[in-house]
Design brief:
- 31% of the residues lie in helices and 24% in strands.
- Helix 4 crosses helix 5.
- The chain has 3 domains: 317 residues, ANL, N-terminal domain (Rossmann fold), CATH 3.40.50; 144 residues, Rossmann fold; 102 residues, 2-Layer Sandwich (GMP Synthetase, Chain A, domain 3).
- The protein is α/β, with parallel strands linked by helices.
- The strands form 9 sheets. A 7-stranded mixed beta sheet has the order 5-4-17-16-18-19-20, with helices on both faces. It has a 7-stranded mixed beta sheet with strand order 12-11-8-6-7-14-15, with helices on both faces.
- The structure holds 5'-O-[(S)-butoxy(hydroxy)phosphoryl]adenosine.
- The site of 5'-O-[(S)-butoxy(hydroxy)phosphoryl]adenosine has 22 residues, from helix 11, strand 25 and strand 26.
Length: 621
Amino acid sequence: MSKLYNPSPEVLKKAHIKDYDKLYSESIKDPEKFWEGIAKELSWFKPWKKVLQWRYPFAKWFIGARCNIIHNVLDRHIKSGKGDKLALLWEGQDGKERKFTYKELNDEVSRLANGLKKLGVKKGDRISIYLPRLPEQIISMLACAKIGAIHSVVYCGFSVEALRTRITDAQTKVVITADGYHYRDKLIKTKHIVDEAAEGIKSVKHIIVVKRANNDIDMKQERDIWYDKLVKDMSTDCTTEEMSSEDPLFILYTSGSTGKPKAVVHVHGGYMVGIYATLKLIFNISDDDIWYCTADPGWITGHSYITYAPFILGITQFFYEGPPLYPDPGKWWSLIEKYKITKFYSTPTAIRASMRYGAEWPQKYDLSSLRILGTVGEPINPEAWEWYYEHIGHRRCPIMDTWWQTETGMQMISPLPSMPLKPGSAAKPFFGIVAEIMDKDGRVVETGKGGFLVLKTPWPSMLRTLYKNKKRYKKVYWGEISGVYFTGDAAKKDKDGYFWIEGRTDDVLKVAGYRFGTAELESAFVSHPSVVEAAVIGKPHEVKGQAIKAFVILKQGIEKTEELKNELKAHIKKEVGPIAKPEEIEFVDTLPKTRSGKIMRRILKAKELGKPVGDTSTLED
Ligand code: WT7
């Protein structure tokens, strides 16, 4: 039996939604009515003729409507007299502070939007953003959206090769980056990485450079331009482009079970409706909230719940440049005290890492401003949940364990503050969402039994397709179990209808919440001259959830040394990025394979964990 935490009278009193069950059953009886009601809370240039067109497996929402997400992020707040409200509070790793009211943010976005236009950027062009956590990272995304350009944000922890693949695939016209930045005490030379990544790619016409670290960089004449110089003389007037609700807003690369990362496509209309509704209702947003999400806009969490939704809701948010636990394990808690954060959204890995340093760190700070906590990215173990509840939320703040994906765009399964909480469970589907546990053949699995988590109906912020690859979209998401969206996760549902997410079932790893395809990592190994073949598995890790373990076959005559292991680790860091550094490498002579030559990672994993290897009838040897 798991523990149950009932909402306090205080939390219940403030909750926007007091009766989940009633609204949920109404919402799934008529999802279009539910979503239409939400959509009407937002501003549109022209209303829709029809809420949903579902031509399986392709959905269109708010058909015929004209809109732009920026119209809701900025324009409508300025119009309604909210211009002087603080939108963004930023603090650098060096303690430097910057502040933007809605009006100031709008001015910055408009200036850059005009700058991009001057450089020849047009509606539909792809812009790659490779920036550390600076206000300009958010401003760049918003400026693209404002003029109808499609942003492709690449997390700046990715290396040259990963960035190069993404620029090539997107046929990027402009890259926005920084000279460099400090990550802990290390200088990362961001512009150098971009120079290498964009080398020889014809589509790249310009590179815009934000000055951050003041390190020496090469500026290529005509191609490269300083951000400050570009925006300096630009007007703060820029009309927000009228888009169709189904026009793409961004593409975002994510890992799947094949080697090549795929670009998920999200659009203006449905996406803004979905992220607005979820943030508002799950985090019970009110006008006086101060929001702090520790994610990076390089990932979907940052897109949805840093760059867009908090501003659509017109609240103030805090954005921090530095990494977790730096310069000391109390840093985040000190920021909560300093900025009087009311809603805090983070990850299980960060909570577990903090736990290791002990409760004396959060105890140093006044955390009484907090009202609701959140977590995302991987399953949270009940011990970490309890620690978060006790030492950060002081048993006052409900924890929203939100399950969702890059592809879903918005939070899909989560408690609401008014719901009883079970540590380790993501609770129940959001309004309008129908989730189920099924076996491989699409049969609903009994209550309490594990199976595949699937989604049975479309939702407004769902991915529309994979960029330039409809076929793969159909196969990956709708081809595994016919008729339903396949999440790739294993889960079970208990007798109260609470969902328990158990982790990935496909060849995708979640390492510290970061998503990697095993094939992607394996091909990085094989690109090293000493390696013939490699197989990668995720191994349980106390803090990171999973850690990367690689089994490597070396070329004949190459010595199996510790130095070579270190060299391979460095190689992966260079090929993919520091976030993908393997924890463990083992040299082996063979790998278990099926007769058709597929590596059976399942067997490697079972052996590694000392578990039964299961069915080996397809094993070749
Ligand atoms: C995968 C999606 C959604 C933003 C960050 C991750 C895992 C996500 C939870 C949660 C258990 C979770 C799933 C999912 N996941 N949230 N609350 N509990 N697992 O986005 O990189 O697209 O990864 O993250 O395995 O499929 P992503």
